[in-house]
Write the structure tokens for this entry.
Amino acid sequence: RRADPHLVYDELDFEIPIGEVGDSYDRFLVRMEEMRQSISIIEQAIDKIPYGPVITRERYLGYPDKKEVYGSIEGLIDHFKMVMEGHHPPAGEVYQPIEGGNGEVGFYLVSDGSGDPVKCRVRPPCFNYVQAMPELALGHYVADIIAIFGSINMIGGELDR
């Protein structure tokens, strides 16, 4: 988030933990420091949360409030249209990375302008990590692969295509 800050990341004070040895234990120590830094980021970010609603008021982007759905015909129509038709983004394609709990999660969407995507792909954080496995496991025992998987926080379910 330091290289490509969004929201309030550029206003937060945090360090990027970097290991020096590169073995499983070193990666474990980096994970521990990442958790400490994450706690610090959360504590700083909580103070920067603005007061107000947390759901957009744009009728075409989000569901209306339940009071509107049950209390006005416009709210009921907006809710019905969102459920039945979905959001209609403009035709084109977009890739948007977001910060996930285990690293960057990428979403690639292709739209023809209808409420249904033409293509939707998700690139989980582990997709990058698994590509390093041949190098990380080189010269180690097969039994070490479990520790290596754990040290890079590999989530096998993310890789299931």
Summary: Residues 1-52 form one domain.
